[in-house]
Design goal:
binds iron/sulfur cluster; single chain; five-stranded mixed beta sheet; CPE0013-like fold; 2 helices; 19% helix; alpha+beta
Length: 113
């Protein structure tokens, strides 16, 4: 049995996942069952961070991926964020890095600047 905490909502259910059958116990809702199975087979994460921005009211702009990426790609995504420089004006939701790190996710602005 693999034990983990569901990150689907603040309730933080403690899950037990059978590594052989992928049966999930301890989840209050179906999201936890999906999360538990995915954590053992193909863990995914939304990546948040900041990028440099020129001409804005701050030096850094909050960004995030617009969908989850494989957990194994998180550092590649962060590396691309670290190299990227945005130029103001930027609109919230604007795609800044398309297909980041070879995934089908984009890095988008989390706010206007
Ligand atoms: S199993 Fe459902 S209720 Fe429990 S933490 Fe996950 S999302 Fe929240």
């Amino acid at each position: 049995m693999k034990q983990m905490v569901c990150i689907g909502c603040p309730r933080g259910c403690h899950l037990e996942v059978d590594e052989a059958t992928l049966e999930v116990k301890g989840n209050f809702c179906p999201t936890g069952a999906t999360y538990g199975k995915n954590e053992l087979t193909n863990p995914m994460r939304t990546v948040t961070g900041t990028v440099s921005i020129v001409g804005g009211v701050h030096n850094r702009l909050a960004v995030r991926t617009d969908k989850q990426v494989p957990k194994s790609k998180m550092f590649d995504v962060v590396n691309e964020m670290n190299k990227y420089v945005a130029h103001s004006p930027v609109k919230m939701g604007e795609v800044l890095i398309a297909g980041v790190a070879g995934t089908d996710a984009n890095v988008v602005a989390s706010r206007d600047m």
